[in-house]
Amino acid sequence: MTTKRDERRKAAIEKQIDENLKRVYEEDTTEKIPDRFLDLLEQLRGQDGK
């Protein structure tokens, strides 16, 4: 049987996990894509036309 205290604790943990995931995702999306990855993507796009 879960108590209200357990439910609040679980909700707080889930909120913290959500906030951390959002923070990591936002940091990832603001980083510049390295030129070598862009070059690889361009090579792959060029293969589509073969």
UniProtKB/TrEMBL annotation:
InterPro entries: NepR. It comes from Paracoccus sulfuroxidans. This is Anti-sigma factor NepR domain-containing protein. Residues 15-47 form the Anti-sigma factor NepR domain.
